[in-house]
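To whoever picks this up:

The parser on our side crashed when reading a file containing two proteins. I've narrowed it down to the boundary between the first structure block and the second sequence. Both blocks are reproduced below exactly, byte for byte. First block:
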Amino acid sequence: MLHCDLTQPAVAGELDPANSRYVLDTLSLAARCCLDGTFGAMVTAPVHKGVINDAGIPFTGHTEFLAELTQTPQVVMMLVGGGLRVALATTHLALKDIPAAITRSGLEQTIRILHRDLQQRFGLKNPRILVAGLNPHAGESGHLGREEIDVIAPTLEALRSEGMNLVGPLPADTLFTRAQLQGSDCQFAMYHDQGLPVLKYASFGGGVNVTLGMPIIRTSVDHGTALALAGTGKIESGSLMAAIELALKMAKNEKAH
């Protein structure tokens, strides 16, 4: 137990901008103790971004805050649950902006981070990664879009030549079928609402958000702050417990690696 000072007494379910700095102090302390080896991993609960910004502190989220603190140029978002590991090529972008955000260099770097962390932190020697196309039917040979032909397929081919076990680009509507998933270790979606609805249908309340690419291990819950439930005794802790258990496994794997 490490203490961080509150500015004002906390009341369950009530937001207070005066305590926004406290929230960031807890994150900073945990991350720095992971960096210096005091801790093997950190697990984050939900934060309310709005109240932190109301305090005059620019804050877009845990992941961006921790990436800056650990001086990590690129992170990868992956959710784990329901027998799936779904990683994302892009995260919180409007649909109209996604095609331009998917580039060869960006995909290559993201897949390299994903592959490395699956090896080092998930104990998978040669992870088999299913890669979704961007367009319906993975572009239908270019008739429904050329991103698969011009960007995704050449990137995958280059990485396969290095020995990576990459399958795709696959039509996203059949990627998550039982037959396709059999023998796979991870599913790589091109955008947020392509991959995460499937995972959350399979595991909501027990899923885990994992940030890949940082020098520290960080897991988190798959839900928001649920302020209406705070202090009622009706909170479900399944996702938090799953996040703790996964962080322990990842730390153990990394140490063994």
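<<boundary where parser fails>>
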Amino acid sequence: MLAFPERYRSVLVTAVELFDPDGAGWVAPLFRADVRLALGVGFAALTLGTLYAGYRVAGATDAWRTDAAETGLLWAFFLAVPPVLAIGLYFALWHSLRHLVRLLALDSAAADALESGSDGRAVRRLVRDATPMTVGALLLFGGLAVAVPQTPGSVAEVGGLYLVLLAVVTLPHVGVVSWLDRKQGL
């Protein structure tokens, strides 16, 4: 929205119009330069405030420095790469891989399998654990496709529906990750 406003607007309007063909009128004010600037400043302040809060809790540890560096890298990445490509690459190559590694580490049998060189056994356990949530997400995606007033007919519309799915699963995902954080004492 900050670096590629027209592309972002196109994606947003496509997603909104899947559910309300005449409902994208509210989108235009979000893309005024002053609103985009205020949103960017607000998000930057929120990012810096979160990093500062982490610093106050953890100090300048390696973990905090890693979080700060990754946060800066993600800011640069999302400012430099067009939105749909950025989201696709981020989820496929960063976000999901980090969660898969974390799930492997939390499963003591899978972690033991990795340590003993039984990569196949560890991957089978990961697939077993990830399959129900993956199937659930695919069913939800199918349900969304049925629920929209107009059937997505273009690649852009299917992409817009996928982004709506990401928005729908974000809150439960945050809940699961928060639970994992507590379980790991983070």
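After patching the parser it read the second block fine. The helical segments are 5-19, 33-58, 62-80, 83-106, 108-115, 119-147, 155-184. The chain is about 80% helix and 0% strand.
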